[in-house]
Structures are given as structure tokens and as C-alpha cells.
Specification:
By secondary structure, the chain is mainly α. The protein contains 9 helices and no strands. Helix 1 crosses helix 4 and helix 7 crosses helix 8.
């Protein structure tokens, strides 16, 4: 069988269009979600914002929930990228800890509605949350071990501390997203102080 010379190029263009449409749907879902909340968001709203037909939506996602699971996973990947950048650019363990906490909460502020869905008290994406936690716990454990090796942190069981710190952060963010008058910088600073210095008077 012979192939036309342009077949591979045509296939690449189709793939790029598919990826572009998928990205448009994700971004449209992000915008509509911020405006209308999860329950107020309809598939027709997402399709209209993405400038595609409802039929096209169903070619990519069988349900609204399926799209939001991918949106959450995409958002988590972006957050992890920002946290990795902090770790790569700040060698000082204490400063890195503070900036990672601030980066996490600023990211939550920028994606407030999505965080409300995932981490709020009425969250329905428990499997996604558990997967997120596992990723961030491993990252935190690595950071704690590096801080201990450098002498910045006490010797301790890094696995237990990582579980405690990520659990504390997620609990605080699930509370904060329902508060409209608590500055994000205050939340990040308070959490960092607690993590770094504990409860006892210095």
C-alpha cells in the first residue's frame, strides 16, 4: 500500500486541532465555573464559551464531571509546577517553606471556585483530592528531608511531618475558600509560622 506524502502532515494538523479544542474546552470550563459556580455551570455554557457545538463537547467528554476531573488534574499540574519552581530557585529551606505556602494559597485565591469544588466541605471529587494529596505529600517529604540534611530543620520522621503539614494546609484552604474577608497573605503567614515555630512561645 502506498501513502500520500501529505498524510502524516494532515494527521499532525488534525491532532493539533483536537488538542486545541480540548484546551479551549478546559479554559471555557474554568471561566464559566468562576462566573456561575459548579452547579450553575451547564454544558451548553461551556460549549458556547469555547465556540464549539454541544455535539463537539460530547466528542471529548461524556459528562460535565469528566471535564471537571481533567480540569482539576490540569490545575494540580500547574500548581505543582509553580511549587517545583519555588523549590528550584530558593535553596534556603526556611525561606522555601514560607514561599511554597504563600504560592499555594495565592494559587488557591486565583482558582477559588475550583478549589471550592475540590477542597470545600461539599467536595465530590474525593479520588482526585486523594491523588493530589499523595503528590504533594511526596514533594513535602523530599523538601523536609533536604531541610533536615542542611541543618535548617530538626531531625524527625519526615513521612509523618509531611502528612501533617499537607493535611493542615488542605484543611485551612477548605476553611479559607468560604471566607470572603480573610487576606490570603495572613493565612499563608500564620500557617508558615505554625509549621516553622510551633505553638510554644519563642
Amino acid at each position: 500500500m502506498t501513502f500520500k506524502p501529505h498524510s502524516a502532515g494532515a494527521s499532525d494538523r488534525v491532532q493539533r486541532r483536537r488538542e486545541q479544542t480540548a484546551r479551549q474546552l478546559l479554559e471555557a470550563a474554568r471561566k464559566v465555573l468562576a462566573q456561575k459556580g459548579y452547579h450553575g455551570t451547564k454544558i451548553v455554557d461551556i460549549a458556547r464559551t469555547a465556540h464549539v457545538g454541544v455535539g463537539t463537547f460530547y466528542l471529548y467528554y461524556p459528562t460535565k464531571d469528566a471535564l471537571f476531573v481533567e480540569l482539576v488534574e490540569d490545575t494540580v499540574a500547574r500548581l505543582k509546577g509553580e511549587l517545583d519552581q519555588v523549590r528550584a530557585t530558593l535553596p534556603d529551606a526556611v525561606e522555601q517553606s514560607r514561599m511554597r505556602t504563600l504560592t499555594f494559597f495565592r494559587f488557591a485565591q486565583e482558582n477559588r471556585e475550583l478549589f471550592r469544588i475540590v477542597f470545600g466541605h461539599g467536595a465530590s471529587f474525593h479520588d482526585v483530592v486523594r491523588h493530589c494529596q499523595e503528590q504533594f505529600i511526596l514533594d513535602m517529604q523530599e523538601s523536609l528531608e533536604a531541610g533536615t540534611s542542611s541543618g535548617a530543620f530538626h531531625d524527625a520522621n519526615s513521612a509523618i511531618w509531611a502528612q501533617a503539614l499537607i493535611g493542615m494546609s488542605l484543611q485551612v484552604v477548605s476553611w479559607w475558600i468560604e471566607q470572603e474577608d480573610v487576606p490570603i497573605e495572613d493565612v499563608a503567614r500564620s500557617l508558615s509560622d505554625l509549621a516553622l515555630f510551633g505553638l510554644a512561645r519563642r
